[in-house]
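Narrative of activities, Objective 1.

The group set out to show that a structural description can be obtained from nothing but a protein's sequence at a throughput compatible with the screening campaign. Below is one input-output pair from the validation batch, recorded exactly as produced.
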Amino acid sequence: MIRFAMEERSLYCGESMDVLAQFIGVNPETDETLAVNWQSSDDTIISLHGKSRLARGMRAERVGRAMITAELMRGDEMLGRASITLTVTERPAKVTGDAIFIGSGAKHKIPPYFFGIGMNDRCALDDGTPFATPYMYDVVKDCHFKNVRVPGGAMSQHFDYRTGKCSVSSYNGEFQGFTLDDFYDIAEKNGVPAVYALNIFDDDFTPEEIVRQIGELKRHTTQPILVELGNEQYAAAPYFVKKWPTVREYAAATRAYYDAIKAAHPDVQVAVVALGKDMEKRILSNPNCSAFTNEEDWEFTQPGRVRYWNYTLGDEGGYDAVSNHPYTHQSITSYVTMDEFMRDHFIFNQDFYLNLLLIDRNFHGKPQWLSEWGDIQETMFRAKESDEKGRINVSYDMGIAVTCSERVFLALKAGCVDTMSYHALQDSSGFGIATEWVHHKKGDIGYLPKYHAFKKIGEVLAENDTFWDIAAESVETSLEVWPWCAQKITYFVHLPTVSAYGLGSADELRCAAMFNHTNHEMRVKIAGVRLRRTWSYGSENAIVDFMVKSAPSSAYAPSEDEYEHPAIYHEDFAEEILLPPFSMVMADTEGVAECVADGITGRISKLYEYEISHAAVVMAGHRTACIDGRLRTFEHAAELREGELMLPPEMAAAIGVQTDDWISSKTAAGDRTVYQNAHGLAVISEIATSFSEPYRDEDQTPMALAELEEIFKNEL
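Output recorded for this entry:
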């Protein structure tokens, strides 16, 4: 009737976590006759926090052992009992780690409208306050945002630009409509373009009407016009399925809209709506989405719609760019400490980068607009009680500001993103970077940790126009499973202890953004340059009172004196600098960075560069092999013997196998996977996502290897 997911767990003193009870045959959320009594055998060792019947926050107060019990009751009758024993120990002394970086030799211009912010209907306040209040102008200006996404996500499906219909929720029984003037005002006054989500859902918004609407947009702005053909149509919601039963109907519609727009307004940039790879993975890895009757019906189901969406739309749609909404989906937060939670976010960031490269391939190199991105704290949204939402809300914390900030630099590194618009400027559900709800009091402006992080990012992007790629020279890296995903399909990514990203002009590297993914200090250097810290954000207490907050609701935002602010440094240049735990650090650079002499950056696509960065690629007849992202030339070439790729001893040794004789690639791989084709190209790797994408697994492996073979022969 009631149980916990584990019987015992260890915590360090001071750590906290959420524990969720599981119920079989009953549902305390809907059955008011049920109660759950939670108890700690010693609340001086483990204290309990929260009031929900389903879960409790638990904090390790001191060293010792305590048993937590949850009794399921109906009146005086106990229907079941669950327990978990928690052992609390002192945290071991932390040791400072080391990381050394080197220039990869690659650099590219930063797109002019790259870093932006999203507006939505929550920016239009229900008390009738004008849409673009003065502080909203200030936020866009302070953060140097270069685009503003309007009119918002779901509401774009119904927004009528002629009347302002559906632009805001009802106020006193009447709709306070906002016109295009309102939506474009904040962008135009800051001199930036708006990324505008067109309503192509309503039947009266035909291609001809959309052309007229774009003519109206031109009256409201002097900036370039960027439009999206809808918002998240990949969902199998009934209204979407009725209009576009499969992706092919949507692709045909985008072609009709695109042709009409381009004929009348060739300067307008048009984006189709892609499915983020993060959401694709979640759906396809869920066993509940896998059943279907026959192949003929498959594309009409949600998993079938998802499976075909990107590559069909990429081939058949009409577009200049592709809109993508990559969110973290925090669907599992129970039995997870803050350190583990932060680590999961950094793992997700690596997957975010890989997914951008996969979308780039699906849409043939067309630029991506991340017109929504951020964090969706699903566990908070699923909670029923307001104070329970407040207890588990982490969206306002410094740690989330740091992990979100890294995604900005990963998007720059990918080189395929033209705009990204964080969702959203203001929101009472944790999305925002600022809020007019502080301590649940209306009208108090609250600038949240993400505001401070984004303000710094905006400043350095305004001062530098070129991204400099920085490679790992000696950085500890682990292989990690993608978090928050059902285990039918397992995804692996590489997580380094530290990541680094360079900024400057076309002629010089001026500064670096560095992210410490660990809960201890990291000592960092970049070969050839001296470093000087100027700013940092983050600490070992990245999320305050993790899962044990006392807050009346998710809208209860901290005031600015209740959270840590960025540290400002006035230091001299040095050979190395220290990064605080779980932090983002900005550092000036002095000198000329050394560059990798035998690297593959710039000679191979970023997708394959990522895939083989911790792998071996060898090919029959070639003395040169790629080992962990570096080119190595050996005395003897690999040979194809009766279908087996044979490696000479020195090549086998380079991939970690000591032998005095020739050895097959499969034997040399050991526990690793070997992807090999008939022409004698082999990839020996623990990670090979692009070689076995789930939505095209029937043909993806040979296609990817064929592409890699051509690259290997022609470029390497």
